[in-house]
Write a structure and sequence with these properties.
heterodimer; A: alpha/beta; nine-stranded mixed sheet; 13 strands; B: alpha/beta; 22 helices
């Protein structure tokens, strides 16, 4: 018998896995799925106690790749937040975990993204942020940096949307950013988000191995297509290694080379940073933009504000979807009251 | 100008017309006239006289012309009429047209602050000092403008013989027994009644008398009725976005659900109501709640329906129960938002992408709005699919004399939903989209079911019977074919049509929704003219066998509806192409409630071709 490690609820890590991923090899989204699995396992969450939701796009395929025993909803482009909002009322004792992408969230979904933060729906909302549209093969998303050049679209002239800034502006009660290759930090933030009674936004930079790259790079899709043998399928996608950061202490800065050869600078918040201060959060976000670094860590948390389901005074520990006919349908005598209301 | 003496002499030669006329009040939007109008309507109703009230109002908060028409009909006809025998003018902008609209021999009343030439001598004309009466009634200066419209209530009470006790009863209902506003308004009415008694002489034949034709009926608007129906249907989740003329549906649930549902000692609410940021979010939330096992509804109108398209298609395909209450109005996007229509039939039936057949339920009375309020949940959960209740502005926002609401006697139908013990009892492994019973309706589970095998993944992408992702052609086709089977099954559950037959009728009429009163009345007129017609009122799509039989058993059937393109006619042609030659379309699409005269004359004109 192999020695299978079980957690406190008697489940192995395998019980938290999903289907085989169909995303590109090396995609940061797969690393994030792995950390969701690890976080749920380590928090001793029963998968049946979780609902998982997503919109449309590469990122939004990922709920199929974790927590097989959880109910899932792969909804519409940009409109996962509304489905999640309604779904939470079915059984408010469940935890909700949603995965979206930067296109799904900050382009078509910007409105619903902002409103679910306003409502403080109790959910972990992960934005797998790679700056491009993957499933439609390489268009700019709203988080793409100004000046980025893509083969078919040329140069991006627009200022990027910053997910973290949008979250702060919309009153999110848990705002974090990380990098897909920083496994420990991603896992820690997911665990913290799952423990938060309110909306936990985790913006995770997750490099696209296929489309967010430059054609003149030998690691790029474009270069590969230009140089491939004619017998190759034109949709050939080169296999890439996932970017892993390894140990990355708080308060330090790390340069990360992306698949296209460009670099980004990650800066991890100091250990003594106080994430409960809204003013401090706004300040460090502003500073990180000026310094052109991506600030990672738990940037802001507010544990006081009631969550969406709190304000609806739902029954303690009882799900609405278990209510009986007698609880839901007014008694027969009440029909007189209804008719008496009329004239 | 004819002298009052001459008018009186002429009137004495005329026979009194009792409980059979149409009355219109012309005011300005936002002037507070709605209280006066519904007070008149309700007082007449309490006198036992069949009445209907229709508010023709602009898409505007204040200042534009608005008309309120009351049909008084001893015969119980409640459709709108084109002609008005009694007209009250309170708006200078429409005075000339209002004066011109009075039927010959009718009566015209106007506030004396309006200074216009009276150029008709074929009608009775009376002015009254509305503002002065408001002042003399003792109303505070800051409220006089709001209650001045009550003056015409008092004048009409005297001139038409409306029972003042019934007027007071109507006001007491309107103000929920609050004595201060009742006294304020009643003061003006009393003052106007006294002034009218002293100063006006009746020279027209129109008046009312108590009768007993409204006992056993109530007055209700379709939106409130539907909302109460939803409450009796056990509604658990409402997400909505404001839109005329649907807003009052969701608002009526909000206002009333606590009084009907909350019980002492209960440990929390059994429902949640969310005002969404737009229609896309409203239906998204509703779909999320339906997926998670709640009785879930949203309300909207045509422009909102179009925004809900993508979710409607997803819900159809992922097989999620959800109710959408569509209060139809005229036109695209903004259109004529305060005019009535039956223009969403085709687009809603096919709402979605690819192949979609949505279930429509079509109430024809406020009582049916109540019934469909709860029955729509039963059908959507039984069929695991969206159900669209197709009301309209006329039915939804106007007051209707209707049969009382009936308690839903049968238990709530939650459909094929499996909880932990149900799954344990199964002999075969459960598969989300497997057609176990051959009726096209699979078994579902809902989030919160803790059985490890219960989870499934809702998606718009292709899937197999286990709800697993699949792009296999045979999986896709099999699933689409099962959805057709399911739609056919739905015809056993949707409400069947209502039939009215006449001996020897070879001509049929098919109509639906708020067209009903005009069709019923026109049928009588046609019969009186020697043309017997049968009438089938549709109450749902898919059609039931009775619809086919009706068309087959008549030489010709007219489909009468309030849209330009004959949308239901087209659906019937699609369903019964072999009988296409028997079906004709009669349409009216001016935004006004249908009138019997139009139906009668249009049908006769077609028959004479």
């Amino acid at each position: 018998m192999p020695n299978i490690q079980l957690n406190l609820v008697g489940l192995s890590k395998n019980d938290y896995r999903g289907a085989q991923t169909t995303l590109c090899a090396g995609c940061g989204h797969n690393s994030i799925s792995n950390q969701i699995i690890a976080a749920a396992y380590e928090l001793n969450i029963v998968p049946e106690d979780v609902i998982k939701l997503s919109g449309i796009g590469c990122s939004s395929k990922s709920p199929a790749y974790f927590l097989n025993r959880s109910f899932g909803f792969n909804s519409l482009h940009g409109r996962m937040p509304s489905v999640a909002t309604g779904a939470m009322f079915g059984d408010h004792t469940l935890r909700a975990l949603a995965v979206s992408g930067d296109g799904d969230t900050t382009n078509i979904g910007m409105g619903q993204f902002k409103h679910i933060m306003r409502r403080n729906a109790p959910m972990v909302y992960i934005v797998e942020n790679n700056g491009v549209y993957g499933l439609t093969k390489g268009q700019f998303s709203a988080t793409a940096e100004m000046g980025l050049r893509l083969k078919y679209q040329g140069v991006n002239h627009y200022f990027p949307v910053d997910v973290v800034q949008e979250a702060m502006a919309s009153g999110a009660t848990f705002v974090a950013r990380s990098f897909a290759g920083d496994a420990n930090q991603v896992k820690a933030l997911i665990k913290a988000g799952l423990s938060h009674n309110g909306l936990a936004i985790i913006d995770i930079i997750s490099p696209c191995v296929t489309f967010n790259n430059n054609d003149d790079s030998r690691h790029s899709y474009g270069w590969g297509r230009e140089h491939q043998e004619p017998l190759h399928d034109f949709t050939y996608v080169p296999r890439e290694q996932e970017i892993q950061l390894g140990e990355f202490p708080e308060g330090t800065t790390r340069q990360v080379e992306m698949h296209d050869g460009s670099t980004i600078v990650l800066k991890k918040l100091d250990r003594d940073y106080d994430p409960t201060s809204r003013a401090a959060a706004m300040r460090v976000i502003e500073e990180s933009q000026n310094e052109e670094v991506l600030l990672t860590g738990l940037i802001y948390v507010d544990t006081e504000r009631p969550s969406l389901t709190d304000i609806y005074e739902l029954p303690q520990g009882r799900a609405l979807n278990r209510m009986t006919d007698a609880e839901l349908r007014p008694g027969k005598d009440m029909i007189e009251k209804a008719n008496a209301m009329m004239f | 100008m004819t002298t009052p003496q001459v008018q009186e002499a002429k009137a004495s030669q005329r026979k009194a017309v009792v409980n059979d006329f149409s009355m219109t009040v012309a005011t300005m939007n936002g002037s507070g006239s709605q209280t006066s109008n519904v007070t008149l309507l309700r007082a007449l109703f309490k006198m036992g006289i069949p009445v209907s009230g229709k508010n023709l109002f602009p898409s505007n908060i204040q200042g534009l012309p608005t008309w309120y028409t009351i049909r008084v009909s001893k015969d119980g006809y409640l459709a709108r009429r084109e002609t008005h025998e009694v007209v009250v003018a309170m708006n200078p902008d429409t005075f000339v047209a209002d004066l011109a609209s009075v039927a010959p021999g009718g009566a015209f009343f106007y506030g004396d602050h309006l200074k216009f030439e009276i150029n008709r001598d074929d009608i009775s004309v009376h002015s009254f000092p509305a503002k002065l009466l408001a002042k003399e009634s003792g109303a505070p200066a800051n409220l006089r403008d709001y209650v001045a419209n009550m003056a015409y209530v008092g004048v009409l009470a005297h001139m038409l013989d409306i029972d003042m006790d019934k007027i007071r009863e109507a006001l007491e209902y309107h103000f929920d027994g609050k004595e201060k506003p009742i006294a304020l308004n009643m003061g003006v009415i009393d003052a106007a009644f006294a002034w009218s008694t002293a100063n006006l002489k009746k020279t027209d034949p129109y008046r009312v008398e108590p009768m007993d034709k409204t006992s056993g009926f109530i007055m209700a608007d379709g939106n409130t009725a539907g909302a109460l129906g939803a409450i009796f249907g056990g509604v658990q989740f409402v997400a909505w976005y404001p839109i005329t003329p649907a807003s009052s549906f969701a608002e009526a649930i909000s206002q009333n659900i606590s009084a009907f549902r909350d019980k002492e000692g209960q440990d929390g609410k059994t429902y949640a109501i969310v005002q969404a940021e737009d229609e896309l979010a409203a239906i998204g939330m509703t779909v999320g709640a339906g997926w998670s096992g709640l009785r879930s509804v949203t309300s909207t109108s045509g422009p909102g329906i179009s925004l809900m398209t993508e979710f409607a298609g997803l819900a159809y395909y992922a097989e999620i129960p959800v109710v959408v209450w569509d209060v139809q109005r005229v036109g695209p996007s903004t259109g004529l938002p305060t005019r009535t229509s039956q223009g969403d039939i085709l687009s809603t039936h096919f709402l979605g992408h690819g192949d979609t057949q949505q279930i429509l339920m079509i109430p024809g009375s406020a009582q049916e709005c109540f019934e469909f309020g709860w029955r729509s949940f039963d059908i959507s959960e039984r069929m695991q699919t969206p159900v669209f209740v197709m009301s309209d502005l006329d039915l939804g926002m106007n007051q209707w004399m209707t049969k009382p609401f009936e308690y839903p006697e049968q238990p709530m139908d939650r459909g094929k939903i499996l909880w932990e013990k149900d799954l344990e009892a199964l002999k075969e492994p459960w598969m989300r989209y497997k057609d176990v019973d051959g009726d096209g309706v699979p078994y579902r589970t809902a989030p919160g079911n803790r059985a490890p095998q219960s989870a499934w993944f809702a998606r718009g992408t292709g899937h197999d019977e286990s709800a697993k992702y699949s792009e296999r052609a045979d999986h896709w086709e099999a699933n689409m074919d099962r959805l057709v089977r399911k739609y056919e099954t739905a015809s056993q559950y949707v409400p069947g049509p209502v039939l009215q037959t006449r001996a020897g009728a070879k001509i049929g009429v098919i109509a639906y929704g708020s067209a009903d009163p005009a069709i019923l009345e026109a049928g009588d007129y046609l019969a009186a003219d020697g043309l017997a017609t049968d009438y089938l009122r549709l109450r749902a799509v898919p059609f039931t066998d009775e619809v086919r039989d009706f068309i087959a058993s008549h030489d010709k059937t007219y489909v009468v509806e309030m849209n330009r393109d004959g949308q239901m006619h087209k659906l019937l042609l699609l369903e019964y192409p072999e009988m296409a030659a028997k079906l004709s379309s009669l349409v009216k699409y001016d935004g006004l409630p249908l009138s019997a005269l139009w139906v009668k004359e249009s049908l006769q004109a077609e028959e004479q071709k």
